[in-house]
Design a protein that fits this description.
- Helix 3 runs antiparallel to helix 4 and helix 5 crosses helix 6.
- The radius of gyration is 14 Å and the shape is globular.
- It is α/β, with parallel strands linked by helices and about 150 residues long.
- The chain has one domain: Protein-Tyrosine Phosphatase, Chain A (Alpha-Beta Complex).
Length: about 150
C-alpha cells in the first residue's frame, strides 16, 4: 500500500509569498490551520485573510481549532522554554481528547494533499509535530510526514 504524505508548515519568518511558493512547490491542495485561535499579528495570516489568500490560488483552508495547543500549555512553554515537556504535555492532552477532530483531518489528508499549519517555523518546537505523529499512529503508520 502506498503511503500518503502529510506536510506541516510554520509561517514564522515567512511572507505570504513564501507560504504560497511552498504550498505550490509541494502541491498542497488543503491547508489545515491547527492554531487554537487563527489570529496573528502578522498581516495576512489571520484565519479569514489566509482563507481568502489561499482560495485565490486554489488552495482550501480549514481551521481545526480543537487541534490547537491549549493556552495553558503555551504559557507553560513560555515560562520554562522546555520543548520536551511541552511536546509530552501536548501528546498527553491530545491523547485524552476525543479523536473526532483528528479523524476529520485524517479524512482530509486522504482526499487531498494536505499541510498542517501553525506559527513556529521549526516543527520540533511546535505541537503540529505531535499531531502529525498521532495522525500517523491513527493511520497505522502509512503517512509519510514532511516538515517544510
Amino acid at each position: 500500500m502506498q503511503s500518503t504524505v502529510l506536510y506541516t508548515i510554520g509561517y514564522e519568518g515567512r511572507s505570504l509569498t513564501d507560504l504560497r511558493d511552498a504550498v505550490t512547490q509541494w502541491g498542497i491542495r488543503t491547508v489545515v490551520d491547527v492554531r487554537e485561535n487563527p489570529c496573528s499579528h502578522k498581516r495576512g495570516f489571520s484565519g479569514p485573510a489566509l482563507e481568502r489568500y489561499l482560495g485565490a490560488i486554489g488552495v482550501s483552508y480549514v481551521h481545526a481549532g480543537p487541534l490547537g495547543s491549549p493556552k495553558h500549555l503555551r504559557e507553560q512553554l513560555k515560562a520554562t522554554g522546555d520543548y520536551e515537556v511541552f511536546r509530552a504535555a501536548c501528546n498527553e492532552y491530545f491523547a485524552q481528547q476525543e479523536s473526532e477532530s483528528l479523524a476529520g483531518v485524517l479524512s482530509i489528508i486522504h482526499q487531498n494533499s494536505c499541510a498542517l499549519l501553525c506559527f513556529e517555523r521549526q516543527a520540533n518546537q511546535c505541537h503540529r509535530s505531535v499531531l502529525a505523529a498521532l495522525l500517523c499512529k491513527m493511520d497505522h503508520y502509512l503517512l509519510n510526514v514532511r516538515h517544510i
